Amino acid sequence: MAKVLEGPGMGLMKKWGIHVPHYVVVTSADELSKLGQANDWMKSSKLVAKAHEALGSRFKLGLVKVGLDLKDAVAATKEMIGRQVGSIKVTQVIVSEMVPHKEEYYCAVKSTREGSEVLVANCGGIEVESNWDRVKRLCLEVGQAPSPDALEKLSKDAGFTGALAKKMADFAGKMFTCFDNEDAQYLEVNPVVVREGDGELVALDAVTLLDGDAKFRHPDWNFPFAAEFGRAYSKDEMEIMAVDSKI
User: Which residue, among 186, 191, 195, has the nearest Cα to 205 in the 3D structure?
Assistant: First the structure.
């Protein structure tokens, strides 16, 4: 499996109709400052800045900053770029709009020995980790796609009601479509939120694992795969990937 960082992961989800926040991935504070002048959302929205690396516990490491204006986001980016965490040096920062919301939910699709599973919960964020019994599953055989009725039943079984049950079923359906078409092994959004104002479900984060051997089928995969959490690629690995990219 090949891990994809948050930015390109959200890009794949957006491709298949899943709402994601506006975001940019930058390699310097100057780049962010220039993009800020060209993108109105960066001047009108509160922003989130996160180190765009395969690192766990970014918040605890001070590598996530929230509630920023553009000036603060530029300063946070300058502070993060170049920081060394173990064997990883921060080389990119992802800056996204804050999406006003109240409730948080969970949705994932993963490969299994028998086929795949769609997972949904009416809790999200850190809450889902301590309430795993609230996660409901729809098991699918190899080659089987979930029907709209099955997804709506899954959503209702997870505790969603009314219009929100239909919206969550539609969201899960788009997640499966992305998973299936992008040769994914695992997709997770935690949290899924209801955006205040228009009521749309939005993916605030993306965990994406793809079948790296399927890259030849996807000419738009113009992003590098990430190393395992907590370490950088070795020199030998970088050389091998450089050769592979030319095949």
Answer: 191
Q: Return the HEC string of the chain.
A: CEEECHHHHHHHHHHCCCECCCEEEECCHHHHHHHHHHCHHHHHCCEEEEECCCCCCCCCCCCEEEEECHHHHHHHHHHHCCCEECCEECCCEEEEECCCCCCEEEEEEEECCCEEEEEEECCCHHHHHHCHHHCEEEEEECCCCCCHHHHHHHHHHCCCCHHHHHHHHHHHHHHHHHHHHCCEEEEEEEEEEECCCCCCEEECCCEEEECHHHHHHCCCCCCCCECCCCCCCCHHHHHHHHHHCCC
Tokens representing 203? 């993916």
d(CA 137, CA 122): 12
pTM above 0.85, yes or no: yes
Q: Average per-residue pLDDT in the chain?
A: 92
8 A C-beta contact, residue 165 and residue 155: yes
Alpha carbon 229 to chain centroid, angstroms: 15
Q: What is the pLDDT of residues 101-133, one digit of tens each?
A: 999 999 999 999 999 999 999 999 888 888 999
Which has the closest alpha carbon to 5: 186, 225, 222, 245?
225
All domains of the chain, ordered by start, with CATH? 1-21+99-247 (3.30.470.20), 22-97 (3.30.1490.20)
Distance from the Cα of residue 11 to its chain's centroid = 9
